[in-house]
Design goal:
Strand order of the largest sheet: 2-1-5-4-3
CATH class of the largest domain: Alpha Beta
Distance between the termini: 50 Å
Order of helices and strands: HHHEEHEEEHEEHHEEEHHH
Oligomer: single chain
Number of domains: 3
Structural class: alpha+beta
Shape: rod-shaped
Number of helices: 10
Low-confidence stretches: none
CATH superfamily of the largest domain: PAS domain
Largest sheet: 5 strands, antiparallel
Strand content: 15-25%
Radius of gyration: 44 Å
Helix content: 40-55%
Amino acid sequence: MEKKAKSFRWRIFHKILLAMLVVALAPLGAVWYVSYRYSVEDLAGVIEERLVSASDKLAARVDDWVGMHVKALYQNGALEEIQSMRREKQDPVLKTILNEYKWSYLVFTTNLEGMNIGRSDDGKLLDYRDRKYVKDVANGAPMATQVLIGRTTGKPALIIAAPIFGATQGSEKKPQGVIAMAMHLSDLTDQIANLRIGKTGFAFLLDEGGFVIAHPDEEMTKSRKDMSGHPAFTARPKQGTKTLVFNEGEKQIVAVVQKTSHGWTLVTQQDRQEAYAPIGDANQRALIMLAATVILVILIGYLFSQRLAGPIRGLTVVAEQMSLGKFGGEIPGRERKDEIGDLARAIERLGKSVRLAIDRLRAKSQAQAPK
C-alpha cells in the first residue's frame, strides 16, 4: 500500500512564528508607508521648488534687463536735446546711447504719429506709424515692447520704447514723442540660454502673442517661431507662476510657467523622468531597506520561534515515551528559569511519580502472586 502523504499541521512553531511576524510587520509596514509617503511628498516639493526658484530668478533677470533699458530711455528722453524733437540735436545723444548699449543696433525717436525724427545710424528716416509700440506709447503707456522683423535689418528684433515728455502743464506730463531702442533677439537669448537644469531642463521666453523672444535653439529665435499653441502658453497664468505636466512627443514634461512684469511668458521646463528621478531612486532605496528589514524580522522570528517551540517538542516526545512506559530519557529544559523550565521539571516529577507508582504496583502484584 502506498503511504498517505503527510498533511500539513499548524504546529505551535508555525503559530508562534506567524504571531511574531504579524506583531512585528504590521506596525513596521504602517510606519514605513507613512514615512515613505511623507518623504516622497517632501522630495516632490523640493523638485518643484527647484524649477520655481529657477523660473523666479530668470524672470527677475529678464525684468531687470528690460527695466534697465526702460530706465535708460526715460533718462535720455528727459534731456533737452531729445525733448527738442530736432534731428540735429537728437542724433548725437542717440549715438551715445548706442555706444553704451553695444548689444543694440539702433536707437531712434518718432513723433506721436510714428514719423521718424532722430536715428543713431544716420540712416534714412522711416515711417513707424504701423508699429504697435508707437501706438501704445502714444496712447499713454509708460513703456512698450514688441518683437518684430526690423525695418532696418530685415531680421527679428526686440523693440523697447518709452515716451518723450514735452513741456508740463501743472503737474501733468504729456508725451510728445517716442524714444526706442532696437536689439537683435539673440542678445536677449544670451540672458536665458545659459540656464540649464540637469541634462534636459531649459527656459524660453514668449511675447504676448506666443512668438519666441528668446530660446536656446537659435533657429527658433531667428524665425520668431509661433508657439501660441504650446501647452505652457495656452495654460499660462494671468499672474504669478503655474506648474503643469504635458506630453511632448513620447516624453512627459514638467514645466513652470510665469508671467513677467512686462506681460511676457517665461517657461522653465524639464523632462519629468529626469526631474523626478530622485523620487525613483528614493523608492528603490526604500524598498530595498523594507525588504532587508522584512528578511531580518523573518529570520529573527524563525530563530526565536524555534527556541520557544523546540523545547516544547522535546517535552512532547518525553511525555509520549512516558506514556509507553519508557522513563529513562533525558528531559530537556530543566535548567531553564521560565515556564518551559517549570513544565520540564513538572514532567520530570510526574515521570518519577508514575515510575514509583508502577514499581509499587509491580511489587504488590508479585507479593500477591501464588507461590
